[in-house]
Design brief:
Strand content: 15-25%
Distance between the termini: 92 Å
Number of helices: 11
Structural class: alpha/beta
Radius of gyration: 27 Å
Length: 303
């Protein structure tokens, strides 16, 4: 065989390899075109509580208002369905803090919602979230790296989230920053606003249906304060009702947090005790400790 024939055979082989490669690429592209885009929603609950609470009720104190998390999550899902019309929802990630990463009753109810994953960081002694930003980064980066999502809606405002945005974008995902209207100035860091692919802000009308100020009953504080033992007894009485309503499974989840109570449980305990005692315990730290002591003592006696 001469050199011309050899070159002809080599050229034929190359053309056949190119044809096979092109055919393979066409099949891959055809499959990709049939695969729907996927999006996920990442919610920094601490930001939502603070921003929505301040916008609707004028305070960031979570003890002063109730947030309809289920309704708000559904509203976020509906908004994403409109924005990402040709995409399917992977799930909603709800990031919050809890002492020792033990779910509160409220967080348990959120975790039971369909298509919702609750991820918990820690709460320190000052009720500040720790570790939430790193959880968001881990999830965003992992899902983008594995091509599990094409779009991410991020509800938050902390500058520490910039690295999470950059990591997801590095794998080809688009990150859309969602925020809650600030009464004055901004409640989202400028570096975060600069990095994302798009921005959207939810106003007062959007947030108002999901935030309700807790009613505060005013009691006559001119009357003598109740005795410490009376307050302890009321704490135990409320604990008995709490246990009968929620059951021993909820008790088992609560006990590891001793001597701390989740914020929602502690607030409900205070409001119910003031109703029964017909006296405000605000400003009486020693009586509030007695109330918690009575509550815990009864629960521990039942375990």
């Amino acid at each position: 065989m001469n050199h011309a024939d050899t070159r002809t055979d080599e050229g034929q082989d190359i053309r056949e390899q190119l044809d096979r490669t092109n055919a393979l690429l066409q099949r891959v592209l055809a499959e990709v075109s049939k695969t729907p885009s996927t999006h996920a929603i990442f919610v920094d609950a601490g930001y939502v509580y603070a921003a929505a609470g301040l916008l609707v009720t004028g305070t960031e104190d979570r003890r002063s208002f109730d947030l309809d998390a289920e309704g708000l999550i559904e509203a976020f899902i509906d908004k994403a369905r409109t924005i990402f019309a040709d995409s399917r929802l992977l799930r909603v990630y709800w990031y919050d803090g809890a002492r020792r990463r033990i779910h509160t009753v409220e967080q348990q109810s959120i975790a039971e919602l369909p298509d919702v994953k609750v991820r918990l960081g820690n709460l320190n002694a000052n009720n500040q979230q720790k570790g939430v930003d790193s959880l968001i980064r881990t999830d965003l980066e992992s899902l983008a790296r594995h091509r599990a999502i094409s779009d991410a809606a991020l509800v938050g405002g902390d500058e520490d989230l910039v690295s999470a945005v950059e990591a997801a974008q590095g794998y080809g995902a688009r990150v859309h920053l969602w925020g809650i209207e600030a009464g004055e100035g901004r409640n989202q860091a400028e570096p975060l606003l600069w990095e994302v692919d798009s921005q959207r802000t939810f106003d007062l009308d959007f947030c108002r249906p999901y935030v309700n100020r807790r009613s505060v009953t005013m009691y006559d504080d001119d009357s003598p304060a109740p005795a410490r033992e009376d307050v302890r007894f009321v704490g135990a009485q409320i604990a008995a009702g709490w246990l009968s309503t929620r059951g021993r499974e909820a008790l088992a989840d609560l006990l590891p947090g001793h001597p701390y109570l989740p914020g929602s449980v502690d607030q409900d305990l205070l409001v119910e005790a003031e109703r029964l005692l017909q006296h405000s315990l605000r400003g009486h730290a020693h009586l509030r400790r007695a109330l918690r002591d009575g509550f815990w003592q009864h629960l521990q006696s039942q375990f």
